Each structure stands twice: as C-alpha cells, then as structure tokens.
Amino acid sequence: SFEGRVEVYHDGKWGTICDDQWDDRDAEVVCRQLGLSGTPKALSWAHYGQGSGPILLDEVQCSGNELSLDQCKKSDWGQQNCDHIEDAGVSCDPFTGTEVQLCQSDAGTVRLAGGRSPGEGRVEVYYNGDWGTVCDDGWTDLGAQVVCRQLGFR
C-alpha cells in the first residue's frame, strides 16, 4: 500500500511516468501527494513492473517541496521519449531506512517538518501510529548529527 509503479490520471486516462531525471525528491512529492509519511525512495527501470497504456510524463524534476507532481518541472503531458521498461516507481516505506535511537529508546521513523528546504526543520518521529515532536531538553549537536545521518544528509 506504500510502494509501486507511479501512475497519473490526465485527460481521461491513466498512464505511467518515465524514469528520466527520476529521483528521491520526486518520490518525496509523490509520497506527500498520496498522504504517505514514510521514507521516499525513487525506483527506476520498471522496478514494480511495466505499465500499459500511455506514458504521460517525462523529465520530472521536483525540488521536493511541492505538494503535487503538477507543481514540478516536467515535460508537457504526453511528450516523452521512453518505453515502459523505464516506468518510474516509488516506495514510501514507513518501516525502513530511517530508524534511529534517541534518548536510549526506539523513536521510530524520523522526518524534518516545517523547514524552508528538505535539509532543515522540526524533528518529528513516527511512533505507535502517530507523528510527534522531540523535546529539546538535552538536545545537542550530537542528536542533530544522528538525525541528519539517518536522513541521508552530511
């Protein structure tokens, strides 16, 4: 329910997205658009199988802050040079990739929220089915370094 081939509905038909320029920032937008809060991961080369019908988007280049793919830089609808072997996929897995330990307890999946860029924001953790914040009591650069590393930042 949180991963698969990405398909979009446009002009009365469903179609796929070509994986040219497809990266984790695009996946982040797809996960957000679907209301999924897991770790966004872009997958290429029809990782979840080849679609059928039209390839509706190509050269999608999101910054990662957009609310939907419509707001991202992309080719015109239907303008593409791809085959279904290049269908784009996404995983928004809430259970892998960003497990961290904070304060000697399992804090679950971590994300940054409310920042001006993907690399900054309020630290939030997913635990027991809900997102919550982290209290800053005892918060140091060491904790920030752990979160940054777990989110793939240097």
Automatic annotation (TrEMBL):
A single Gene Ontology CC term: membrane
Q: Which domain of life is it from?
A: Eukaryota
Q: Does the keyword Zinc-finger apply?
A: no
**All residue ranges annotated as the SRCR domain in the record:** 1-93, 110-154
State if Protein biosynthesis is listed as a keyword. no
Where is the protein localized?
Membrane
Q: List the disulfide bonds.
A: 18-82, 31-92, 62-72
For this protein, the record's Pfam families field holds: SRCR (PF00530)
SMART domains attached here?
A: SR
Where does this chain mainly localize?
Answer: membrane
Q: How does it sit in the membrane?
A: Single-pass membrane protein
**Keywords, A to Z?**
Disulfide bond, Glycoprotein, Membrane, Repeat, Signal, Transmembrane, Transmembrane helix
Note the Gene3D superfamilies from the entry.
SRCR-like domain
Q: What is this protein called?
A: NETR protein
